[in-house]
Amino acid sequence: MDNSQLQAFQIRDRRPDALGNLKVLPDELVCAILENLTPRDVARLSCVSSVMYILCNEEPLWMSLCLNKVNGPLEYEGSWKKTTLHLENVPDEYKERCGKQLHFDGFNSLFLYRRFYRCNITLREFSFDVGNVERKKGLSSEEFFSQYDGTKPVLLSGLADDWPARNTWTIDQLSMKYGDKAFKISQRSSRKVSMKFKDYVSYMNFQHDEDPLYIFDEKFGETAPGLLKDYCVPHLFLEDFFEVLDREQRPPFRWLIIGPERSGASWHVDPALTSAWNTLLYGRKRWALYPPGRVPMGVTVHVNEEDGDINIDTPSSLQWWLDFYPLLADEDKPIECTQLPGETIFVPSGWWHCVLNLETTIAVTQNFANSKNFEYVCLDMAPGYRHKGICRAGFLAVDEDILRDVEKNAVNHEDDLSYPDLTRKEKRVRIQKLREDPEQETTTHGDSKIYELWRRDFSYDIKFLGIFLDKEKDHYSSLWSPGNSIGQREMREWLSKLWIGKTGIRELIWKGACLALNADKWFNCLAEICAFHNLPLPTDDEKLPVGTGSNPVYLLADQAVKIFVEGGLEASMYGLGTELEFYSMLHKVNSPLKTHVPEILASGVLYLENGTYKIVPWDGKGVPNVIGKCNFIPVNCKEDDFPFGLWAKKQYECIKAGMSINEQTNSAGCTQIWPFIITKRCKGKIFAELRERLSSEDTLNLACFLGEQLRNLHLLPYPSINKSTFSDIKQKMELPFANGSTEDTPYKSDIPAEWEIFIRTLSRKKRNIKSRLTNWGDPIPETLIQKVHEYIPDDFRKLVDSYQVFTTSFFIVSQLLILF
After folding, report:
1. Where is the JmjC domain (predicted)?
2. How would you label 123-132 residue by residue, b for 16+ Cβ within 10 Å and e otherwise?
3. Residue 377 and residue 390: Cα distance in Å, rounded?
4. DSSP letter (8 states) at residue 12
5. What's this model's pTM, rounded to 2 decimal places?
6. 463-487 pLDDT per residue, tens
7. Domain ranges, ordered by start, for the chain
8. Mind listing the pLDDT tens digit for each residue in 800-818?
9. Which CATH superfamily is domain 135-371 in?
């Protein structure tokens, strides 16, 4: 055969001509770009060239496009492209044309081939051994608590033998009973996707996805209450501290998990460093686990340089087992096992784990906080990020400078590898020498020798991890991480309920409260205040602050003590100053409201000087000397004035409004000062606790009483404002915004001068209301946050000018802006 005949049989590479300048990009990057387009744009792009046609018709691409669009119930149409076209309301005749695939030669892609392989591989014949996780049957609570809880994973058999679910949780039986029930679907997007169970079963039978959708529903008990009757919490895991919370307050803790082969959970650490048990009722699961701080190969840890928060990128569980697991040396392989029906696996706090379903599986799992992991859960809730990263990613989450700082502050034995007394490079050398030691033997339970070395490489010890807490943050009022499973208010209530309900473990609860809320710091402040005012020291029952507010409040026998900390010292001084001015006004005008407001017993400022606590009494008038040294003193104040009263507070709010947290300077050098107030304690319970028990007549009488007191409150006159103070406020009002621009307010009207302060404050707060509402988080829906500007006037002066409208509309708008 001559050269001309050979050339006729050679297949031309389509890629250069079909992709043009995009030919320099790898296929993986081109596919990633396509995922960010709309379905219609992808459809148009498929007509550009043969290679674009191939790339734009990949099922994984259309799966991503579909899941980025759907928000709610999903019905699979046999392929992801058909499902997406159905969501796009494409006419049926066009759907038929799209179903006819074109075929082209001359194009090869290793990336697409590998993905195609993963999408179609079957795992039924995977020959996994039983693994090296210990298997136990008939384990007593004492044995579990001493040998495994908080220490290492274990596979337990026999715990579910008496469950009805062992016989009734099959795909066919669940389909018959719950086929029309919609369950939440887990997938890699922020969208909330659900499917009726019968539709999900149909999807499982037709799909060929690399990372199939699977049911991962934390509210299955509400959707199908009958499922809760089919199982019970095994006796080894009955201790759960979150049980003291009401169901709506409790973070998600139990999940129904159903998925086909190839589905699973990629590498992760369970939220809030809780422990978990997972019972398999149907099918087989493959588990891989690493101890805390041991980041698996293939998982990329991203550390935010600003706040220390970490995010991880991880391959799907199937991709990890196919592409990364074979590359591991024997000593670097995870602890692993194959879970069989009826077996329960226990995953301790902080452990990395990855799960791959070898066939269709049905399981139930619950996370819990108990006496073994309670301190870790509280540590994870504490404000700041660095300690969170350390708990999950070990020393990868911090740089060398931080490690050196820790080394200086930590008192450790030089030969103890439990602490980072060596640099990372030195530690690697030390660990490598240990690995090469031929005398290291395999443990008696079959764990590899490297298992013990991992544990020695990184110390998952609460005292060591506590070193990485941000000591400068006020844990009581600082913003918590958005990823926390519960908020600060819920955390305080949780600790309070534990304190009252579980008196036998108060020492442990106190340790957790110190980590999460700086409870020891505020208790020391309380003790100093009590000693100065000759009040009895708090009893054990009174040791923790109460309520869900942002300031520590203590209820003693006959007194209530409030320490002002929210917003820093300057905001705290205005908080106490306005309260004291309010009380003064009540008595000045002899308002009937004063008989229903707790009596002030004392007030003042507590500060720490040279390691010694000191207290200065303060009634709100004048400026205490310790405050006079700070850099935020109001000007033009007299001895008999309330320098931190209402109008000064409004000036402060005006200046701070619209600024980000980073732009709001905290009082430098004044962080060890805390204003406080002591009032007479009111007996009784809050309305929320009595709502269900009150009769309609009692509720009506209460409403009438509160209405009368609200009228008395509205009858109180505003404190007078002198010209010098107002002039200063006007000058402050002319300050530009944080971005350097000034507010354009062309509309002028004759409104009371005092209202200028409110208008200016509201106008500045309006500028970043969306971001502040987003930071506030639940329960404000994102859809409402995006529309908030539709409810706020463009110019508040116009609104105030209409005095009749002002009394209602302006009040609602001001509350919306100020409260949030």
Report:
1. 222-385
2. beeeeeeebb
3. 14
4. P
5. 0.81
6. 989 888 887 777 777 777 777 888 8
7. 10-120, 135-371, 379-532, 564-715, 743-819
8. 655 444 444 444 444 444 4
9. Cupin (2.60.120.650)
